[in-house]
Design brief:
heterodimer, A: alpha/beta, eight-stranded parallel barrel, B: about 210 residues, three-stranded mixed β-sheet, 6 helices
Amino acid sequence: MLAKRIIPCLDVHNGRVTRGVQFGKAELGELRDMGDPVKLAMIYDAQGADELVFYDITATSEGRSLMLELATRTAEQCFMPLTIGGGVKTLEDFRKLLLAGADKVSINSGALAKPEVIGQAADHFGSQAVVLSVDAKRRADNSGWDVYAAGGRKNTGQDLIAWVVKGQELGAGEIVLNSIDGDGTNAGYDIEANRAVARAVDIPLVASGGAGNPEHMRSVLVEGEADAALAAGIFHRGEYTVRQVKEELAKAGVHLRLL
Amino acid sequence: MKTVLIDYGAGNLHSVYKALLKAGLEAKRSADPALAAAADVLVLPGQGHFRQVMEAFLSSGFEPVVRRHLARGKPFLGICVGLQLLMQSSEEAPGVPGLGILDGIVKRFADPSVSVPQMGWNQFFSYGNPPLLKGIPDGSFAYFANSYYVDFSDSNPGAITHYGKTSFKSVVSQGHLHATQFHPEKSQAVGLKILANFKDIAQHVLNASVL
C-alpha cells in the first residue's frame, strides 16, 4: 500500500529560503530569510521527509540560474525526490530543471497561458515528471473554486475542477492544489476543495496551503482524500519536525513511511 | 571494476550517478557504446514513455552491447524503464518491441481504485532471498513513479509490491541481471543499501571470474 507523503516546501528567493507572510506578499518584499536551501533540505531528509519541493519565487534570470545550481547541489546530497517549480513556462524550462537534478517540475501560470506545454512535457519526459500546480480560491457564492494565475493575483475565471481534469487529460502526472484562502494562515487546508479534486482526477493530489498542525494534515489526507500534504511554515519555524508530524499521523492511523 | 552508467538521453542521470558514487560504485557516465562494451558492470536507467525511451536506446547504439553483456552473464542493474525495456513489449507502446530478454510484458495499472501514476513510497516484500536486498528488512519502503509494471513468471528470487489490487514484481534477479521498478537513487538509506549490495554482488562476480 502506498504511503501518504509529507512534503516540506521551500520557497527560494535568489538562492535563499524565504517565507512570505501570505499569498502575493513575497513580491512586495515581505519575506523572512530562513537559510540555505541545501542545508534545510538535508535536515528534512534526515527527519524522514518523503519529498522536497523547491519553489522559485525569484522572477529574474539570475535567480533562475541559481535555482539550477541549487537543484544540482541538492541532488548530490539528498537521495529523495525533488520537485522544482516557479516561473516554468516552456519545454526548455522543464528540460533544464530535470537535467539539473529535479525529478519533477511543476508548472502553474505557464500552463494556464499555454496548456499544450503540459502535453509536450509529458511526451518528452513522462507524466511522472509533470506536476500541475493550481492556485484556487473559493468563489464568493460558494459554488466552487476559481483558478488564479500570477501567484494568486489574477482570477482566470476558470473552474478548478474543469482545469485539473483538463490537466490530467493533457498528461500531468500529479496535481498540487494551493488554497489561496489557506496559504500562510495556519488555519488548515481546504478539505472540500481537495476532496473535490481527488474525486475528479485519477492522478495523485498534493494538498498545499494552510497547514498549522499535524491534525490539519491528517484531515486533508483522510477527509480531503489527498495523497500528500505539503507544508512550509510549520517546518521552517521549527514548530514541528517532519518526524514528529509523521509520528502523530501514524498514531492517528494514517499509513506512512516511518524511518 | 569498470562500471558504466549508460547515458542514452533518457532522463536525469545525475541522481543515479551521485547515488552510485555514494554507494561506493565508481561509475562512469557514458554515451559511448565502445566504453560500455569494455565494462565489467552496466547500469541502465530509464524514465519516460516506453516508445521514446526504446527509440533513444536503439539509436544510441547501446543495444548490441547490452545484449552481449547480459549473454555473458556480467553484472547488470536496470532501473525503472531500464527494467521495462528488457521485456517483450509494453502496453504503453503497442507495436514497439522490447529487448525480449525477460519473457513477459509491461502492463498498465488497471485498478480504478488507485491513482495512476503510482507516485510515492511503497513497500516491497522479498521472496527467494534476492542478494540485492541482503540486510534490508522486509516491508521496507522505496520510491516509485510508474504507471506501468512488468508482468512475467519466473522462479528466480525477487520482491513483490502491492498497489491496490495489483501485485507486481518490484525487484527482479536472474543470475547477475538485477533490476528494480522503483528508484533506488531516490529511496534514501534503503536505496543506497540496495546499490551498495549491487556493488558487492558485482565485486564478488568479478573476483570469482578472475580466479
